[in-house]
């Protein structure tokens, strides 16, 4: 995480330099416009001095302005970004991060809107997600056939998008125009079997963006699905396992459960007892608290820096392969 923050600061610094370079060019143009403000007459002046000013500008200045606009003084900044590109997070990193968020949301039964605001179990963590991040999560949910949860994330993201009309340009510049929200919404509604609602939204999107070929393709697919009566994609809920369900505080019974200090499992525990919280009687499940101190946690993290790699498993053909079940899936 430390390196990611360093990379973020590095890139933000490049953007700031880029903004400064642009502002300098804007200031230059505005200064020139102010210089010529007195000469903006619709008729050519009979004043020989004013006549010469205009003639000289048309002869010389505008050719130089053409060169000025063709210049790319920020090419070095682009090269600085290219140099660090191999260190940037990959698609796999994004997917693992989203799986981690999904696991947190499922384990603690967190409402999507609250989680997007950074509110976890009624505690605001002074951070939040924006519309682009919400649609990224929604796309991942669609990829994993979790259409109900995908719709929740998409609607939260769309609400953020529509709350600020001026944000559309920057979202489009960053590869997430408003039309992408509509396309994903139609795909989700189609898979949930709400095809007539999807049709009305899709027709609205086509009126707004008639040049988008992808919308026309989506319309053709939707018409075919309506015509043949294709069944909606009902995601079969995988059994999470009775042990994993006990990770959620909402499934824990409130009677006959208690906390205690375990001093009997080992002679050593008489000196350093374990804090135990009984979570479930059937199946029997306990949660150990303060097993590792905050100081030791920091120490372990520091030792792992530069050495932490993804765990691999052996595939059917005998090759080593990365598996999400070893990283962000199947853990409490």
UniProtKB/TrEMBL annotation:
<feature type="domain" description="Prolyl 4-hydroxylase N-terminal">
    <location>
        <begin position="1"/>
        <end position="121"/>
    </location>
</feature>
<dbReference type="GO" id="GO:0004656">
    <property type="term" value="F:procollagen-proline 4-dioxygenase activity"/>
</dbReference>
<protein>
    <submittedName>
        <fullName>GM12885</fullName>
    </submittedName>
</protein>
<dbReference type="InterPro" id="IPR011990">
    <property type="entry name" value="TPR-like_helical_dom_sf"/>
</dbReference>
<dbReference type="GO" id="GO:0005783">
    <property type="term" value="C:endoplasmic reticulum"/>
</dbReference>
<dbReference type="InterPro" id="IPR013547">
    <property type="entry name" value="P4H_N"/>
</dbReference>
<dbReference type="Pfam" id="PF08336">
    <property type="entry name" value="P4Ha_N"/>
</dbReference>
């Amino acid at each position: 995480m430390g390196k990611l923050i360093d990379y973020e600061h590095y890139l933000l610094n490049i953007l700031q330099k880029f903004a400064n370079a642009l502002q300098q060019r804007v200031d230059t143009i505005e200064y020139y416009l102010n210089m010529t403000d007195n000469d903006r007459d619709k008729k050519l002046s009979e004043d020989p001095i004013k006549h010469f000013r205009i003639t000289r500008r048309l002869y010389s200045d505008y050719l130089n302005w053409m060169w000025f606009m063709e210049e790319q003084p920020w090419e070095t900044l682009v090269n600085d970004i290219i140099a660090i590109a191999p260190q940037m997070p990959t698609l796999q990193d994004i997917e693992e991060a989203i799986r981690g968020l999904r696991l947190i949301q499922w384990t603690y039964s967190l409402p999507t809107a609250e989680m997007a605001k950074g509110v976890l179990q009624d505690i605001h963590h002074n951070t939040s997600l924006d519309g682009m991040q919400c649609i990224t999560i929604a796309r991942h949910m669609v990829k994993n056939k979790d259409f109900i949860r995908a719709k929740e994330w998409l609607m939260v993201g769309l609400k953020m998008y529509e709350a600020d009309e001026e944000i559309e340009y920057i979202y489009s510049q960053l590869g997430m125009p408003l039309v992408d929200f509509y396309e994903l919404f139609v795909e989700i509604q189609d898979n949930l079997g709400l095809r007539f609602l999807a049709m009305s939204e899709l027709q609205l999107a086509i009126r707004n963006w008639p040049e988008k070929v992808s919308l026309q393709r989506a319309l053709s697919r939707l018409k075919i699905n309506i015509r043949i009566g294709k069944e909606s994609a009902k995601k079969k809920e995988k059994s999470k396992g009775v042990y994993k369900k006990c990770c959620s505080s909402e499934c824990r019974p409130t009677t006959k459960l208690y906390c205690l200090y375990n001093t009997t499992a080992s002679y050593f525990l008489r000196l350093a007892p374990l804090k135990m919280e009984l979570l479930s009687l059937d199946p029997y499940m306990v949660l150990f608290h303060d097993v590792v101190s905050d100081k030791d946690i920091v120490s372990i993290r520091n030792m792992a820096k530069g050495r932490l790699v993804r765990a691999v498993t052996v595939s059917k053909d005998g090759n080593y392969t990365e598996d999400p079940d070893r990283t962000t899936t199947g853990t409490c």
